[in-house]
Structure formats: C-alpha cells, structure tokens
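Structure first, sequence second, as always.
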C-alpha cells in the first residue's frame, strides 16, 4: 500500500513538489521521500515474520514518508554453511543473498531504471535529504552503484576494510567498503551482472560489491559524510536501541 503525505504550503521543502487542491481547501504539498522521487523502486529486506525488527522499521519508515516494497528473505534454515577453503559463508548471509538476487533479477526483467535496496536495520540521519542531495548532485555521471551504508556497532573502519579516494568534498570513490544496509543501483545490465556474481560465488553481498569496485569493474561511490546508521551490532551487550546482528 502506498501512502500520500500531505504538508501545508507553509512548510518549506528542499525541492519543489507537486501541488494539489483537495476539496477546495488550501493548496497542499504531496510529499514523497527523496528516494521515491529520484529512483524507480525502493525495496526493503527483512527476515521471516514475526521478528523483533518489524514493528520498529514499519513505524520508522512511515514516519519519514518512505514507500517501499517489502521482501522477505528465504528462511536461513534452508541453507547450510559453505566453506571455500579460506572463507566461511553462514546460513544467515546466504539468506540475505537470496533476497538480493531475487530483487536484482526482478529489476532486470522488469527493466527498472534505478533501484534502492534497504535492509531492515537501516536508518537515515536526521538531515538525510539535504546531505543526500549534496552527495547525489556531485557524483560522477559514470556511477553504477552507490553505497550509503554505515558500519554496524562493534565493527570499525580500518585501513584494511575501508579504502576510498576523494572525488570532491561530498563524494568518495570506493575501492573497499563493507556493509550493505543502504545501496542504490542503476541499469538492468548492472543488476544482472551483480546477481550472477552473487549466485556463482555465494559470497556475502558486500564482498561481491567490493570485488566489482576494487577491480574497477563497476564504478561505486559513497558520501564523505555518513548519512545512514545501521542498528545491528556485533557486540554481545546489545544496547536497548540496537538489534543483535543476524549475520555474525
């Protein structure tokens, strides 16, 4: 179901929005979230219900006016751990991969121009729209995917797991960046290329994306300023406003 968010004209919006007159009342704005305005489709991945995250993300995304297609990942019980000789891929990672590949293949076959994929522990910073537009308006035109993700609590950026080069004051070009809570992709051929790689390699989504960016197979960019938060944590003492990671 899609929601229409109404704002009185006294509220100033960063971008001109569609005007509508309702029952001869005052002119109002129909508000659409910036991600709905700029991209063809927004998908949100969660696990099998019931889960502790569901009420939290439904309430949150309603509050920020985001419309999304909810996708339930395949239950992790359908998978078994895989070890390729150097890396173990657990059942939860494969479950997440199943949702990504399903979305990417669907978007390929339906020829969506651009898509956003969110995970259920993603949250935006308070001034997300302003910061996102600063970033988006300054990215190079050759982009294939944008990684807006942030690292989960208890997993910090280091010189080994976070390697970027500066493009300008708002944009970094990615070589290595982990996490996948907020990703934006464009072009159907890109969707299929990524989905095929996930299926053939079985590696977690962020490792697959790193393979593309590190080897200059696809152009990936991220904002200099963190504009999302990931509520999952990998520490044992989980804060009340966080979720225990379902991956590791």
């Amino acid at each position: 179901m899609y929601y229409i968010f109404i704002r009185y004209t006294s509220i100033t919006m960063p971008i001109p929005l569609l005007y509508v007159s309702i029952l001869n009342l005052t002119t109002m704005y129909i508000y659409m979230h910036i991600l709905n305005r700029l991209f063809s489709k927004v998908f949100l991945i969660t696990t099998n219900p019931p889960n502790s995250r569901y009420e939290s993300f439904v309430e949150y995304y309603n509050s920020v006016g985001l419309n999304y297609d909810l996708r339930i990942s395949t239950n992790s019980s359908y998978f078994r751990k895989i070890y390729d000789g150097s890396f173990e891929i657990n059942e939860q990672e494969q479950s997440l991969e199943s949702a990504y590949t399903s979305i990417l293949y669907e978007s390929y076959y339906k020829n969506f121009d651009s898509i956003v994929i969110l995970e259920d522990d993603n949250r935006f910073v308070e001034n997300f729209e302003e910061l996102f537009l600063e970033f988006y308006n300054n990215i190079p035109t050759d982009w294939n995917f944008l990684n807006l993700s942030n690292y989960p609590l208890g997993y910090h950026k280091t010189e080994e797991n976070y390697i970027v080069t500066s493009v300008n004051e708002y944009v970094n070009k990615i070589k290595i960046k982990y996490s996948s809570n907020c990703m934006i992709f464009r072009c159907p051929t890109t969707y299929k290329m990524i989905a095929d790689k996930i299926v053939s390699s079985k590696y977690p989504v962020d490792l697959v994306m790193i393979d593309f960016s590190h080897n200059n197979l696809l152009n990936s960019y991220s904002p200099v300023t963190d504009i999302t938060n990931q509520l999952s944590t990998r520490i044992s003492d989980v804060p009340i406003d966080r979720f225990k990671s379902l991956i590791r």
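Margin note: Residues 1-31 form one domain.
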